[in-house]
Predict the 3D structure of the following.
Amino acid sequence: MRETRRLTCREHGQEHEVFFDAQTQRVVKLTKPGLYGARGSLQEYLRQADYANRKFHDDLMIEGWGWMPGEEAARLVVSQTWYAGRLSTEQEITAYMEMLGFAAIF
């Protein structure tokens, strides 16, 4: 694992580079340089984050912007509370989503 000050790199996903801040017990996520998630625009990224905060009682916080050495574009920096746990089963995910009022379409 690579450390950046007090942050430890945990994962490189499709949308973010993810770090863990042990001091605050938060996950710090940096978008890919110049990109903002699966939908691509900053406006849609923020809209999706707001929706997740309201619908799923998440606590995603916009922390600011980061510019890494050698990169040609800035990254959006966000954080969320860290929850230790395990991967959910498909049945657990389906039950949870149905409890929130969603319906499967496939």
Remarks:
- The chain is about 25% helix and 30% strand.
- The beta strands are 3-4, 7-12, 16-21, 26-31, 61-66, 75-81.
